[in-house]
Amino acid sequence: MEAAMGLMRRMPPKHTETALSALLSLLPHHSSDLLAQVDQPLQVLCDVECGKEFILCEYNRDADSYRSPWSSKYHPPLEDGTQPSPELRKLEIEANETFAIYRDQ
């Protein structure tokens, strides 16, 4: 495990996913430790309806689709995906607007 972590520390960030995948196949019994200790780059997807990017994570994932906080639609489309309540969606829109103001300042 020490050697695997040493290798990951020396790996360029653009090769992190490939190297981690290879290590997981070589060391399946250490998979939970590797996944917990290795930072992976964030993945983003563009909401084509709004033209804005959003982060792909477990919090906005349903099956193999991800819900955009901008349009509340799933990418790729998912007919029966979980949607926030109207009150929560309103808060999400307000938070997005607030963060946009903060980002622009």
UniProtKB/TrEMBL annotation:
It is found in: Cytoplasm, Cytoskeleton. GO terms for cellular component: cytoplasm; F-actin capping protein complex. One of its GO terms (molecular function) is actin filament binding. GO terms for biological process: actin cytoskeleton organization; barbed-end actin filament capping; cell morphogenesis. It comes from the Eukaryota. SUPFAM superfamilies: Subunits of heterodimeric actin filament capping protein Capz (SSF90096). Keywords: Actin capping, Actin-binding, Cytoplasm, Cytoskeleton. PROSITE patterns: F_ACTIN_CAPPING_BETA. Pfam families: F_actin_cap_B (PF01115). F-actin-capping proteins bind in a Ca(2+)-independent manner to the fast growing ends of actin filaments (barbed end) thereby blocking the exchange of subunits at these ends. Unlike other capping proteins (such as gelsolin and severin), these proteins do not sever actin filaments. Heterodimer of an alpha and a beta subunit. Belongs to the F-actin-capping protein beta subunit family. This is F-actin-capping protein subunit beta. It comes from Punica granatum.
